[in-house]
Design goal:
The protein is α/β, with parallel strands linked by helices. The chain is about 15% helix and about 30% strand. It has two domains: about 210 residues, Alpha-Beta Complex (Spore Coat Polysaccharide Biosynthesis Protein SpsA, Chain A), CATH 3.90.550.10; about 180 residues, Hexapeptide repeat proteins (UDP N-Acetylglucosamine Acyltransferase, domain 1, 3 Solenoid).
């Protein structure tokens, strides 16, 4: 078994949090590195640590820019132990990355001489995987000192295989290939170019491999739908009378589920949330902490970040909602095209198919909606924006913008007629 084999030879894991493809992950990536995105009740980094520590990974190196390192330190504060050096929190070690020049000679030496084990695992900062995948990957490392997950093209030309974001290297292959690297793909390309015919690869199959490269934000929903099924059922909150809970549901401390609410798992509710009354939380809902879901709301297969309030009489389906947003009553997200085809989204200047039949809104942080606002499928809303009453948002909204309807109004005199009293017959 992979667990038994790896228990005998402990290995280190390195998360390379690069700047690559960050623009494709806006608006959430503006202030948050992808490894801290929320999926299935946890941050991606929490999932990585939870899954890998069972198989011999005791320490994780995080290569990130100075700004991202500050965000990691805040997010990982729960892991902090007493009297730790400034470059360490619990099992996590930090190594600073220059986003333009890549790994410096000093940092490369620190990794090679002070952190890396004889073999090490390297993953890009925008990937997440299941326990099932990780077991399979580690089994394939046995008897080899280099392995990478790749997506093969139709011609099966080794030079054109796309590196998917996870690799296993013996230290000797890293000694001359770290300097100047800006992501794991750089290291993979250098090593595979030198020993291409001897480089072992694991094929990536979209429908079977429980490994997700977060190239676009909707990929979080793909990962969420699988990982949410693996959560442990628990109830550490307060459940009022007349609440129905079916399936696997995880409820954290300080959360209150008010009367009349219906929770249909698998789903996860974080700490200090306030749900209901009369809410319907459906499969795939993942709520971060300090979230308020108001009266008669329905949520389905949706990720909601810290501090957001979704007001009464709202529907949110197949969506990603950022932190500290506030929904006015009657805010509705459309998630299905009338022609039933895959939903498209505009990322930068490109219109891209999400590959999803159902896809709602992707919303940044600190967004406010007024009463009765509507979102068409695949719309992306930037940070610090607002949507006014009665708006049907059909196109993306940039950060820091307010969109509203300037409707014509007519005012005229109005007299209330006195009601005639009906005589009893």
């Amino acid at each position: 078994m992979a667990e038994e084999i790896l228990e005998e030879k402990k290995i280190k894991l390195v998360v390379f949090v690069s700047e690559k493809n960050r623009e494709q992950l806006l608006p959430l990536s503006e202030n948050t590195p992808p490894t801290l995105f929320h999926v299935a009740g946890k941050k991606i980094i929490d999932w990585i640590y939870k899954i890998t520590k069972k198989y011999g990974v005791e320490e994780i190196g995080i290569i990130a820019t100075k700004n991202d390192t500050v965000r990691f330190r805040e997010a990982l504060s729960d892991y902090m132990l007493l009297s730790e050096p400034p470059n360490k929190i619990g099992p996590f070690h930090f190594f600073e990355l220059n986003s333009k020049n890549g790994l410096s000679r000093e940092i490369s030496a620190n990794l090679l001489e002070g952190f890396l084990s004889k073999e090490s695992l390297w993953i890009e900062g925008n990937v997440i995987f299941s326990k099932k995948f990780f077991e399979d990957f580690l089994r394939k490392t046995q008897g080899t000192d280099k392995l990478a997950l790749v997506q093969e093209n139709e011609e099966e030309d080794d030079k054109d295989k796309e590196f998917m974001g996870i690799a296993y290297f013996a230290k000797r292959y890293l000694e001359s290939n770290l300097l100047g690297a800006t992501c794991v793909a750089d290291i993979y390309q250098r090593v595979s170019t030198k020993i291409a015919s001897f480089f072992n690869t694991m094929p990536y199959e979209i429908e079977k491999t429980e490994f997700w490269k977060i190239n676009y934000l909707w990929n979080l929903l793909d990962a969420n739908q699988v990982l949410i099924t693996t959560i442990k059922e628990k109830n550490h909150g307060t459940i009022e009378d007349n609440v129905t809970i079916i399936g696997k549901v995880s409820i954290e401390k300080g959360t209150r589920i008010r009367s009349g609410s219906y929770l249909e798992g698998p789903l996860a509710v974080g700490k200090n949330c306030d749900i209901g009354p009369n809410c319907y939380l459906r499969k795939g809902v993942s709520l971060d902490k300090n979230i308020r879901i108001g009266n008669a709301c329905e949520l389905k297969n949706t990720i909601v970040y810290d501090g957001t309030h979704i007001g009464h009489l709202s529907y949110v389906g197949d969506s990603i909602i950022g932190a500290n947003c506030n929904f006015g009553a009657g805010t509705i997200t459309g998630n299905l095209r009338l022609d039933d085809s895959a939903v498209k989204a505009k990322v930068g200047e490109d219109v891209i198919s999400t590959g999803r039949r159902k896809m709602g809104v992707i919303m940044g942080n600190n967004v406010k909606t007024a009463i009765n606002t509507y979102f068409m499928p695949g719309v992306i809303v930037g940070n610090n924006s607002a949507i006014g009453t009665g708006v049907i948002l059909k196109r993306n909204l940039e950060s820091g913008k307010f969109v509203y309807v300037d409707q014509p109004t007519i005012t005229q005199d109005w007299k209330i007629k006195a009601k005639e009293k009906k005589k009893d017959k």
